[in-house]
Amino acid sequence: MCPEELTLFATSLAIAIAKDRTTDEIDLTAVILSQIASSLATISIQRQQCEGKKGFDVEEGTDSGNTSSIIITS
Q: Which of 45, 41, 39 minimizes the C-alpha distance to 74?
């Protein structure tokens, strides 16, 4: 599937899901789908790390103000 088709598919799916739903229902659905997307990304990155594939490197450190920060590099 090309990028344009994928975008069209995602937009069409969003329109179909939102049809005949209240704003509150759409908001709840969006939050749930966002959580699913975040969880899938976490699983994918963790699998890549466990398999030794190139993925994202996550480094945790502190700056001069002792504020904890996370740096993600590819």
A: 45
Residue 64 DSSP label: T
- The two three-digit tokens of residue 14, written as one number: 């969003």
Contacts of 20 (CB under 8 A, 6+ apart): none
The domain locations on the chain are: 3-73
**Chain position carrying tokens 């594939």:** 53
Beta bridge partner(s), residue 61: 69
**Interval 16-49: pLDDT, tens:** 999 999 999 999 999 999 999 999 999 999 999 9
Question: Would you state the pLDDT for residue 16?
Answer: 98
Cα–Cα distance, 36 to 22 (Å, whole number): 21
Q: What is the pTM of this model?
A: 0.61
